[in-house]
Every structure is written in C-alpha cells, then in structure tokens.
Specification:
homodimer, about 150 residues, mainly alpha, two-stranded antiparallel ribbon, DNA-binding
Chain lengths: ~150, ~150
DNA sequence: CCATAAGTCTATCGACTTGATAGGCTAAGT
DNA sequence: ACTTAGCCTATCAAGTCGATAGACTTATGG
C-alpha cells in the first residue's frame, strides 16, 4: 500500500498539472481543494521541489508550480521519490538495487524471479503514465456531470 | 516493499513445497536452512496454518506440511495473507476494497485509475505463479553449479 | 523600510508497525 | 512419565506514519 504521503503528493501534482500555466498555486489552496493537512503537504511539496519536480516562489503572489510540462512528469517518478523503489524486494529494484542479506543464491532465488516480473509490469505502467495523460482520462470520466 | 514476514513466509513455503511428500518438516530445520529467526518463523507458519495453507503435527516426528499440492498454492495468496492486499490504494483492491476517505469522486480519480491498472498487472502475475512453478524455474537456474 | 504574505526549517507528538526474543503451556508420540 | 515440538502470551527496541506547532527567511507592495 502507498502511504498517504505519496497519495497526497500525487493528488497535489495532478492539481498543479491541471492549473499549469496559471502562475504559482498556494499550498493552502492545494491543501483545501484536495483535503490534505496543510503542514503535511508543505513537507511533501518541499521534498518534490528538492527532487526537481517543482519550483516555488516566496512572498505575496507566491506558491508552487511544476518545473516541467505535465506530460514530462510520470507517476512512477513521483512515487519513487515519495515512497521509495517500486520493487517489492530490494534485489529486484532497478533504481535502488540492494542485495537481500538472508538470500543465499540470488541467481536461483524464486522469490526474486517473481518479483522481477512484477517490478517490470509495474514500472511499465507507472513510467508511461504522465500527469497529463491521467488528467485527460479523468476529464473523460466526468461525463455524468455534464 | 514486502516486509520480512512475507519474504520469510514465501521462502518457508517454497522449501515446504520442495520437500512435499516427505512428511512434516521441523520449524527449526526450516529456520536454519532459510536463515530465519526460529520464533519469528513459528508465528508466520501459524498464521499460514490458520489460513488453511499448512497442516501441523505436534510431538516427536511433528512439524509442518502443505495442506494442498504445491501447484495449487500461489504466491499471490501467500502475500495477501502475510502482507495484505496487493493493491497500492485501498480503493483499488479486489479482495479488500475500501473507499479512500479523502477522495471526493472515485469515478474521476486519476490516481485510482493508474492503481487499478497496476493491481491488475500484479495479480495477473502473482496469482498465476505457484510454488511448484517457481521451484521448477529455480532448478533450471542452478545449471552453473552442475 | 516596514508590514505582510507565503514558503522553509526544526522539532515534537502519539500511535502504530516491524522484527525479534523469552517463557510457559499443551498435545502427541515412545 | 518423559520428551519433543508446536502453540500462546507478553514484551521489547527501533523505526515509520501522519500530523501539528512555532520560529525563520524571503519577497512583494505600499
């Protein structure tokens, strides 16, 4: 399961993608619109900023905005920052490989094999899904609202 | 990431599958062969027993054995017991659906859409991977050892 | 140049989970 | 009855999660 940190972060990023091009968005506005505790969201956005996904502006008229176009930011990238590797075991991670201490022989480890497959399938999806593609699909889903 | 509980449980189950048909296996033997703390493993096996995956025998000559053939037990089943739902968000779980409190409109939630895809891909793999299929593939991988 | 707006940093909090250990209880064989 | 080995309860330190509080810094604008 994802932590709330990742979920909140994703929601905020989707909102920022929606509002892209309209100048900085206030943390408090994001927090209110997405029902996220403001202080918690601050920390999350800072984290995303440090990893180069966001820019911020201080003072009046300040706030956050994406530092890249919404179609150049994937869900996989965001989750890796906020949650850690996508893989279910360290020895199956592409981005942060680590050996499992208790594993005698990695080459024949059945658990690892299965988890490599899962990791491939997961990243294939999440690294192809961008903020804009998600938002586009959400708008289609809104039909019943007119 | 999987917890050690799940990893230990999977390893023990794979070992039990390997030794299937040879009578009960001691917890202490499993623990030693797989480098798992014995007391911790006891709790895990007990859990798997309560969920119907294992049988146990007390007293001398006792131990654990699979209660179903190794090709009728999937990795997905084991992980769901020891780790919880495969889905990354509760609203994307097949087996334990729960609404996300902070989500205003599930039908248009972009996060949910992406996570539904991931869950489908994951369970497609893990629910088709049985203990025996994993063990079979591991044996092939042992070539370099003669 | 001072007041205010808004992001940034540090710290702390309780609750829960993780991983592990200890000790006694109970059932089953010989 | 004695021993073996699974079963149960309790406890533990360490870490994580989610959230909050307060002080600090930087920019705008009057």
């Amino acid at each position: 399961m994802l932590t709330k940190k990742s979920k909140y972060g994703l929601k905020a990023m989707l909102q920022l993608a929606e509002d892209a091009g309209r100048g900085p968005i206030l943390v408090s506005e994001l927090a209110e619109r997405q029902s996220i505790p403001k202080k918690f969201l601050e920390a999350i956005l800072l984290d995303l900023k440090r990893h180069g996904f966001l820019q911020s502006k201080k003072g009046k008229g300040g706030g956050y905005l994406l530092s890249r176009p919404p179609n150049a930011i994937t869900v996989g990238q965001i989750i890796r920052v906020l949650e850690g590797p996508l893989a279910l075991v360290p020895c199956a991670s592409q981005t942060q490989y680590r050996r499992c201490e208790e594993c005698a022989d990695e080459a024949t480890c059945g658990v690892r094999r299965a988890m490599l497959e899962v990791r491939d399938a997961t990243s294939k999806i999440l690294d192809r899904t961008t903020l804009s593609s998600l938002n586009a699909r959400s708008r289609k889903g809104t039909l019943r609202r007119g």
